[in-house]
Amino acid sequence: MAWTEITRRHHDRSALRYASDSTDEEWAIIGPFLARASRVGRPSIHSMRTIWDGIQYQATAGCQWRMLPKDFPPFTTVQYHFYRWRDSGVLFLINEALVAASRIIEGRDAAPTAAICLCAHDAFRIRLSCVRRHAGRSSTTLAYFIEFGYF
């Protein structure tokens, strides 16, 4: 995609607090994935959007969690939600939904249909690296790989 005056205006992030903050349009897509499912416990004093923006800032800046600016929630809160969403698969679901949406916008099928075909030489190199990785564990492991046709 080439930058034109229209695309520059469309992707301008100068009105946001940080360039990594989500726009209202982006939040409309991501927000439903991050809704609080739990009704027990203490109510949150931070919005999910500011927590999401903190995660985005950390990922964009590449900084340590402790170096999040003070206008985000405490770094422990942001870090907790990141790990919780990562471990529960929410971030994977968001990624899948965004990839499918971008493919549909481009006029393609939502799920990719291509397969990766390896030539015999590449397949041999993959098997060889697998054997090398496991060969140091025991002498019978290497014999197992040879016996079952990995070599």
List the helices and strands and how they pair.
Layout: H1 5-10, H2 24-30, H3 48-61, H4 75-88, H5 90-105, H6 120-135, H7 139-147
Helix pairs in contact: 3-4, 6-7
Description:
The protein is mainly alpha-helical. It has two domains: 5-105, no CATH class; 115-151. The chain is built from seven helices and no strands. The chain is globular, with a radius of gyration of 23 Å. The N and C termini lie far apart (46 Å). Mean pLDDT is 77; it is low at 137-148.
Mean pLDDT over the full residue set: 77
Write down the Rg.
Answer: 23 Å
Helix content: 40-55%
Give the terminus-to-terminus CA distance: 46 Å
Query: Quick one: overall form?
Result: globular
Structure classification: mainly alpha
Keywords:
151 residues; mainly alpha
Structure summarized in a few sentences:
With about 150 residues, this protein is an all-alpha fold. It has 7 helices and no strands.
